[in-house]
Amino acid sequence: MSAQPESVQSNPQEDLQTRRPLEGVRILAAEQMQALPFATQLLAHMGADVVKVENPESGESARGALPAVADIDGNQVGATYLRNSLNKQSICLDLKNPEGKELFKRLVPHFDVVGENFRPGTMDRLGLGYDVLSEIHPGLVYVSVSGFGNLRESPYSKWPAYACVAEAMAGFMESARQTDEEPKLGAAGALGDIGSSLFAAIGTLAALRERDRTGRGQHVDIAMFDAMISMADVVPFFWSMGVRGKERRAAGVVSSFRAKDGYFVLQAVREHHLALLARAIGHPEWLEDERFATRLGWGDRLDDVVRPAIEEWASDKTKLEVCAELCGQGIASGPCNTPEDLIHDEHVRDHNMILEIPRPDSEDPLLIVGNPIKFSETPEHPSRRWPTLGEHTDEILRTDLNLSEEEISGLRARGVTASS
What we know:
alpha/beta, Rossmann fold, formyl-coa transferase, domain 3, three-stranded antiparallel beta sheet, 19 helices
């Protein structure tokens, strides 16, 4: 039997300063790249014990991403792996090998969650799908992330999918494209991966809560396409309201503008916001101008009247000075930050949103994003570096399965496992 989450068994008087909300939850993750690994890393930040299952020869595919660094074991480790593997353990199992599959099955009862983000049907073909594993462990929460889902039919079910595919299919790129330009990829980073991961984390926690009440686990299924439709909610919604085609008109002022040292954005979409903006930049006469009588009118005059006026007013100010002044008058505004701006930002520092992880091949640390979820009672804990390939294989086989050193050595010799 898997140990139930400690949150259920905990002593109410226990010192919250020494524990995190998900301590006691164990996750066995047959994961790759980012669409699931970001989710499991987020859960690990909050105390979950995450064990990555990797191929004994090459590890999971994110290790081969570029750019890469030389790790302490001499292997090259790719950027996607580095930024999605903090606070995790690594165990090497060849899941195509019958012995490797059997070891995976034997490990399952020791875990609360099994996670995977292969193409639909892959785990079933390996004999490691939900139906098989739930027979072994009825309380198992089984989490799948894929391009188009496992539990319902899709005409795209056999298509491979990366973040940009799900983003494009959900309408992000086409809805933002101007008539005379091509769709732009990657404007929000790997939104398709990270957004899907957030839904995977939410689904995992909800299923664990239900398991605590009923004793039964279930299959949590996240389609990246579904996740991106949810995040691009205005695309179908505005269409249903009649806002269609490239002729759609902007209401109010929502755009980027140039300051002395870069760009800033502002949003003024209500009448009182527009009045505040007009006065702030020294054009109160706009409030009596018929061209600005409606929100649509402001949008129509954005490029020929509004933008030149705002940028002239901002030309002798830094983007931070501009935003401080506008926000001080009740106008929502923010700088378009560069990486250097983020690294030196006071808010980012005080919120621990950039973690400095020692880099093995350089004196400069790697900067990996922190946990955006803050708790009033539970403090943040220092993060552990990513694991080397198979770093925890022997320890987990010894501790969870009570294998002897001779058995472990034999598995390693036969290529079923590997360790560092």
